[in-house]
Specification:
Length: 476
């Protein structure tokens, strides 16, 4: 079995995890520039420890990242060599509007992305642009409390419309917010939020989430006015949740867990708050305050496709008691005895990808796009400059097989597949460099040392073959 020739095979990155150059080209400071590596990282990411309280001596890995700002052409050439049909990247909001409040964009920032997109087009690679991937200009955090404020929606639309106009004829596929459900788990990362003592955090998060959902809908509206040919997607941290047993209470717990994530896509795809969420938010006193036009805006401006990240499935029980838990893309899960896990405890479940694809397609009946999937692992660079990452090949092969089955046997409509961190980059959750995802090794270490030199791993040639055969070689 192989996928159609127009299937968008490729890779994905985010500005804050690979660009570096955090003050170059007129860029302003952004939330991720203030997230340290090490033990203070998690408290800052969850909004418990305000970054202003950090002492001297912290290290901020996103500020340098892998210096793609200066290696862009070299990196795109390597992507082209693998035969990428598509490259997903994000635009750093504060490169375009350094404080977020300017009336006019920063031309130097736009020129950087012009050059990147032109370079991709030169090799026939379709750009897939994430407008906001875990970054908020820091001025907006300081002056407005970030996504607590409704005015963020207008500032976001000003930024998004600037991109739509500038790249009107060069970019077709857009995502509004990366993993929009992340606001619930990492509120500083997802929405620039930190909390006061005693505040109802749940309420603040749902209010911020509403502003993002509104901003996303308004961006869809602006996009359609600027170019009706654009395709705009939502983006969800996905991975279906299983029930620990066939006890109906466990099954119900799993359904509720899935709804925590579906809520966001339900609004973006169906155009309204689903009844289950409206009731639950009312009950908890967390229903967000809305403007008179908000419901109409959400309803009239739904997305064209549903994109998502998939790293693992989840497991839950009505009464988890002392049951063993494991990590996994921020949302923790019970340990599933049928699955092995990565070195970071993320459980490896290729069939879960097929299940997730089918669940999402059954629910939305919209084209899907897998925009993140991959294995974070420790790679060893040998003296001869090679990296034998057979474990990564095994992980990706197993997932691609299930993806192909979902398309060919189940009839799921799937636009493409971009592996996460197609080049090694800074880990979002841990800030580490040693958690590597790439087909391309980057000589950058956790302590900030390294030459930034790029090396092809064994998986580089393997993925080139996958793309070249439309996925057929994964069956060998
Ligand atoms: C997703 C994010 O949550 O998972 C990425 O969209 C992130 O930004 C990726 O890098 C993998 O997570 P991590 O923590 O291993 O980098």
């Amino acid at each position: 079995m192989r996928l159609a020739d127009d299937f968008l095979w490729g890779g994905a990155t985010a500005a804050n995890q690979c660009e570096g150059g955090y003050l170059e080209g007129g860029k302003g400071l952004t939330t991720v520039d203030m997230i340290p590596a090490g033990e203070n990282r998690f408290p800052v990411m969850t909004g418990i420890l305000p970054y202003e309280k950090l002492g001297e001596g912290e290290r901020y890995p996103s500020r340098e990242a892998i210096d793609m700002y200066h290696h862009m052409k070299e990196d795109v050439k390597l992507f082209a060599e693998m035969g990428f049909k598509c490259y997903r990247f994000s635009i750093a909001w504060s490169r375009i509007f350094p404080t977020g409040l300017e009336d006019d964009p920063n031309e130097e920032g736009l020129l950087f992305y012009d050059a990147l997109i032109d370079e991709l087009r030169k090799y026939g690679i379709e750009p897939l642009v994430t407008i906001c991937h875990f970054d908020v200009p820091l001025t907006l955090v300081r002056e407005l409390g970030s996504w607590r404020s409704r005015s963020m929606a207008d500032l976001f639309v000003k930024y998004a419309a600037t991109l739509f106009k500038r790249f009107r004829d060069k970019v077709k596929y857009w995502l509004t917010f990366n993993e929009i459900n992340m606001v619930m788990h990492l509120p500083f990362v997802g929405a620039g939020l930190f909390f006061e003592d005693g505040e109802d955090q749940e309420k603040v998060k749902y209010q911020a989430a509403h502003h993002q959902l509104l901003a996303s809908a308004l961006a869809v509206k602006a996009a359609r006015e600027i170019n009706p040919e654009f395709k705009i997607g939502c983006m969800l941290a996905a991975g279906s949740c299983y029930a620990n047993t066939c006890n109906p209470d466990d099954v119900w717990a799993a359904l509720e867990k899935d709804r925590e994530n579906y809520f966001f896509a339900d609004v973006q795809v169906r155009g309204k708050y689903p009844a289950y969420a409206a009731r639950a938010l009312m009950r908890k006193g967390c229903f967000p305050s809305m403007g008179p036009e908000d419901e109409r805006i959400l309803e009239e401006n739904t997305v064209d496709f549903v994109s998502f990240s998939y790293y693992t499935s989840h497991l839950t029980a009505a009464d988890a008691g002392q049951m063993e838990k494991t990590a996994g893309n921020v949302m923790s899960s019970l340990r599933n005895p049928y699955l092995k896990a990565s070195d970071w405890g993320w459980q490896i479940d290729p069939v879960g990808l097929r299940i997730t694809l089918n669940n999402l397609y059954d629910r939305y009946q919209k084209p899907l796009f897998i925009v993140e999937n991959g294995l974070g692992a420790v790679d060893e660079l040998k003296a001869d400059g090679t990296v034998e990452d057979d474990y990564r090949i095994a992980y990706l092969k197993a997932h691609i097989r299930e993806m192909i089955k979902a398309v060919e046997e189940d009839g799921v409509e799937l636009l493409g597949y971009t592996t996460w961190g197609c080049i090694d980059l800074v880990s979002a959750s841990t800030g580490e460099m040693k958690k590597r995802y790439g087909f391309i090794y980057v000589d950058k270490q956790d302590d900030g040392t390294g030459t930034d030199g790029r090396r092809k791993k064994k998986s580089f040639e393997w993925y080139r073959q996958v793309i070249g055969t439309g996925g057929e070689c994964v069956w060998e």
